[in-house]
Specification:
Layout (H helix, E strand, L loop, with lengths): L6 E4 L4 E7 L3 H15 L7 E9 L9 E9 L2 E9 L2 H21 L20
Parallel strand pairs: 2-3
Antiparallel strand pairs: 1-2, 3-4, 4-5
Length: 127
């Protein structure tokens, strides 16, 4: 693909995957699978947004593949950036970071992970 021909795909979770630069179909399909695996899980609030992947056209760039996600998980915005040497490494890195970021967002308000009362040095009950 050239920069004039930008490809876009949509995952089952209403996340658009866009490619800019010289991104082949195989790399785009692998990225699409990884994003879908990170976001198509039970228990997640409604998810929508986009993933952009780009390959630098300059040959001297050390890490030519870059990716960025802007995804809304419920009412929270999850932004993930990554730069890698190959498309597979980029897809794997984005998958890992996206998965951990969505885990943090979904468990942020989980009250079972909190203590019953704050410790005394934070204004909790004095013993």
């Amino acid at each position: 693909m050239t920069s004039k021909n930008i490809g876009a795909r949509e995952t089952a979770a209403a996340v658009l995957v866009r490619a800019d630069g010289e991104v082949d179909e195989e790399s785009l399909a692998y990225l699409h699978e990884k994003v879908a695996a990170a976001l198509d899980r039970p228990g997640l609030p409604p998810v929508n947004g986009e993933v952009r992947v780009r390959r630098a056209s300059a040959h001297h760039v050390e890490l030519p593949w870059s990716g960025r996600t802007d995804i809304r998980v419920g009412s929270d915005l999850v932004v993930v950036h990554a730069r890698e040497a190959s498309a597979r490494e980029l897809a794997d890195r984005l998958h890992d970071r996206l998965r951990s970021a969505t885990e943090r967002v979904t468990h942020r308000s989980d009250t079972t992970r909190r203590t019953a009362a704050p410790p005394p040095w934070r204004g909790g009950p004095q013993k």
